[in-house]
Write a structure and sequence with these properties.
Layout lengths: L7 H27 L1 E3 L5 E3 L3 H7 L2 H31 L6 H14 L2 H12 L5 H9 L10 H29 L3 H9 L4 H12 L1 H16 L3 H7 L10 H11 L3 H26 L1 H4 L1
Antiparallel strand pairs: 1-2
Helix pairs in contact: 1-13, 2-13, 3-7, 3-10, 4-7, 5-11, 7-10, 7-11, 10-13, 12-13
């Protein structure tokens, strides 16, 4: 009978305890604010579930949540297929492999606030390189500061540029792990490129794609810095995602109770949808 060595947990346990401690205190503080009201001087008044009811019935919350889901859905629909396509086109051997890998990793090395500021300057209609080119060279009326559609196109393009590399690198890792024997067998059987992708590459990439989709969902659903620096939630409230609206309530209006309740609802939605993604994508493995 094979024995399992659990001694490795002794090395991991201190890290788990530290992370749990650092996460537990902020979480309990948020829970405390979510059921109470304060007017300063550290004086609290019990409110119960009032803030949760207020948030769940708020049209403002529903609108911001809808914009957040739309942003995340567009990101996943664009970045996952695009990342797979780029990974398939990258070389597997030779000099260009490290060049391609380093090039793909470069956008992810740029800090989030710098990405937002960079794209803000890049897309300004009069002084930005892209904005000036679209307006004065191509004759397209582009102004993300005034046009909601242009603002949405800009934040989507920015995120695709910034984070498609993550899907590419994970997909590429899955592709290079496929043994050559599978390709040789497919060649003998006369399989087409589509058949090779459908029956060999895609199934073998399933695990890394699950990780990629979960990471991109959680990150895009909780994104704040890049769109806030780029558009500030405007024009109007057209790009005010749920994360931006939460910060406005907490810091702009200083409504700590509603903000705490919204953050817990936000957290619960993220966990629920992540669990659904994971369950659906690993359903065949559990059978």
């Amino acid at each position: 009978m094979k024995t399992v060595n659990h001694k490795g947990w002794y090395f991991v346990a201190p890290v788990l305890v530290l992370v749990a401690f650092n996460a537990l205190i902020p979480m309990m503080t948020v829970v405390n604010y979510s059921v109470q009201e304060t007017f300063g001087d550290n004086v609290f008044f019990w409110e119960g579930l009032t803030w949760f009811e207020q948030i769940l019935r708020s049209d403002r919350f529903h609108a911001a949540l809808g914009r957040q889901f739309m942003f995340t859905a567009l990101i996943l629909l664009i970045e996952v297929p695009l990342g797979i396509a780029i990974a398939l086109s990258m070389p597997r051997k030779g000099f260009w492999v490290p060049v391609c890998l380093v090039t793909m990793a470069l956008p992810m090395l740029i800090p989030w606030n710098v990405v937002g500021a960079m794209w803000n300057i890049f897309t300004l209609p009069d002084i930005g390189l892209l904005g000036y080119f679209l307006n004065h060279t191509l004759g397209i009326n582009y102004d993300m500061t005034q046009d909601p559609v242009a603002a949405w196109v800009t934040i989507i393009t920015m995120d695709v540029w910034h984070w498609t590399s993550l899907v590419v690198l994970l997909s590429y890792a899955g592709l290079v792990s496929i043994p050559d024997a599978y390709y040789q067998a497919a060649k003998i059987d006369g399989a087409s490129n589509w058949a090779v992708f459908r029956f060999i590459q895609l199934p073998k990439m399933k695990n890394v794609l699950t990780i990629a989709i979960l990471l991109r969902f959680m990150d895009s659903f909780n994104i704040y810095t890049e769109p806030f620096v780029l558009t500030g939630g405007g024009p109007g409230n057209s790009t005010t995602l749920l994360s931006i609206d939460l910060v406005k309530i907490a810091l702009g209006q200083f409504d700590l109770g509603p903000a705490a309740a919204m953050s817990l609802i936000y957290f619960a939605i993220t966990l629920l949808v992540s669990w659904l993604f994971y369950t659906l994508m690993t359903k065949d493995d559990q059978n």
